[in-house]
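Last lecture ended with a question: if I hand you only a sequence, what can you say about the shape of the protein? Today we answer it with a concrete record. The protein is Replication-associated recombination protein A. Below, first the input exactly as provided, then the predicted structure, then a couple of comments.
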Amino acid sequence: MAKPLAYRMRPTQIDEVVGQQHLVGPGKIIRRMVDAKLLSSMILYGPPGTGKTSIASAIAGSTKYAFRTLNAATDSKKELEIVAAEAKMSGTVILLLDEIHRLTKPKQDFLLPHLENGQIILIGATTENPYIAINPAIRSRAQIFEVKPLAENDIKDAILRALNDPDKGLGKYNVDLKTEALNYLTHVTHGDLRSTLNSLELAVLSTTPNSNNVIEIDLETIENCVQMKALVHDKNGDAHYDVISAFQKSIRGSDPDAALHYMARLLEAGDLISVNRRLLTIAYEDIGLGNPAAAARTVQAVTAAEKIGLPEARIPLATAVIDLCLSPKSNSAYVAIDSALADLKDGNYGDMPPHLQDSHYKGAEKLGRGVGYLYPHDYPNSWVKQQYLPDKLKYTQYYHPKSTGRYEQALKQQLDKLNQAKL
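The predicted structure:
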């Protein structure tokens, strides 16, 4: 069975790598490793189809080392042992280990000595964030490089190269790729070269030549051959947390368009739970006392979303997102409680004043519990000067009000009056 176009076009020399010039360009780190033939183990991480396997193949081809490919999830320890035996017999082997984030402890323990002595140069490939998903023992023995989605110009160059290559590509076919079809193909797969080339090959091989034996690929043809790569993500993957982070930061930054975009990604992935939980957090962490009514409305919107489910849930949630984006922001309550918790963790606390302690039981008065407590409701405006914090924290202030919303401005005025009365 013929190999797919994306496989056939895989580079065999470092100069053939598409994109990733921050790693393989002149003077960049992987290029320097190859030129000096001074390789070290590395982990390449990034989205699918962006060149992780291609870089590994190009490194091996440029250095003339033996090149082997295994999958950490599906290949057994026995396959690793075969690679190690080959390295011991014939010298250095470059091992591309796909899905390295799924490497088990026994396989890892077997690999480590071979990485230490340099017999195996490990190139791990993963779509997951290695700082989160990969065991520190492997991570500490490898350099970590991020492989980024390819730019549209890189994708276009790769398409034209594939169309013109008669040996590995589609050069033996008389293809007329229309400009609008080329432009569409360069951006629709969002930097995934593998998907781009496989879509191109499907279009060429499934289109009947015209009377002049020309395979005409127009926009409609390419649209029918592209499996759309969604802008969403695996809700169980690392990118999930990046989208959630961008979602919250967009609301915090008062950008409703960006916030709606990132929420759309989450909803398109079917992740209603994360949207609801994050919105409730944002409402109280970032808006908080700046607009408490908006926080209450967010609770109502999330409740409605839970009851009606997707796709209709998007409507109350969009209302809440816009409301939160354009509300006055205040993190004063969030900062205040974290400051109080930090004091506790640092051991910075003391005994509570005796007059605040429980006095409902017999004998409490003999212990001084509750003695001297002043009941605020017995005084004008239900307030009386009285110490509540432990002596050690007597003058501590955790809550520092902001003035971004009318509600918290009113709270600040009240707090200022109370603080003045304490003097």
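Comments.
1. Strands lie at 42-45, 66-71, 93-98, 120-126, 143-146, 175-177, 215-217.
2. The longest strand covers residues 120-126.
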